[in-house]
Amino acid sequence: EASIYTGVTIAEYFRDMGYSVALMADSTSRWAEAMREISSRLEEMPGEEGYPAYLSTRLAQFYERAGRVIPLSAEKEGSVSIIGAVSPPGGDFSEPVTQSTLRVTKVFWALDAKLAQRRHFPSINWLTSYSLYRDTLDPWFRKNVAEDWPALVNEMMGILQEEEKLLEIVQLVGSDGLPDRQQVTLEVARLIREVLLQQNAFHEIDTYSEPKKTYLIMQTVKHYAGRAYKALEGGKKLQDILRIPSKDTFAEVKFTREYEGFIRDIQKRMDAELGR
User: Fold this and answer.
1) What is the CA radius of gyration of the chain?
2) pLDDT tens digits, residue range 78-115?
3) What is 140-274's CATH topology?
């Protein structure tokens, strides 16, 4: 408990100096377990699963110390962002620590062991994770990146949600049992997962992707999807659509420094290979 409060106090000290501070707490579950043990020895009235009744209050007091401020001592603006890791036993998100944390925080990154086993990093499940800051941030992205940023994000998420439904069918009948259009959808979803969401934190270029690059990647995925569906309707064979060379080359954009020209070239090649 002392380390939790010491850490956030130090973060506030640097915040008041005008810095933007990120505080990582790993893990708040151990802190909650310590509170449960101390509460038990003090013979306090237990709450759910033996945790003290004030568990939610303590967690809220900790997370609510995050935020953006203008200190009284200076005109510099500072901020503290708290990223807390919760380790629910057996991955049970209904246990008290997880639920108390979700009630007070506005962003939830759900780590998925299955993604980690498939070597997909960061192993954040895109279907169960969420952010309540979307509506707040959308105007900034429209102004500073592109007007259609929110629409593109929604489109990418819609494809991933559709992929999840299709994969259930694939497990029963195999991918060959799907209509051609749905097989194209699975390929588009694979591009989103492998080119947009996957990241190599140890690569000097892929360790960070600026918003403009992320936008152009989403735009290219949409470009491929539109061309692929149109080519399919025009009578082009499914295998020819799925095996175009430019699609495989597109994955290299993650490790390309001069990405704008690279992406323009990829889109032109997609047009040539799939037909306008």
Assistant:
1) 23
2) 999 999 999 998 888 999 999 999 999 999 999 999 99
3) 1.10.1140
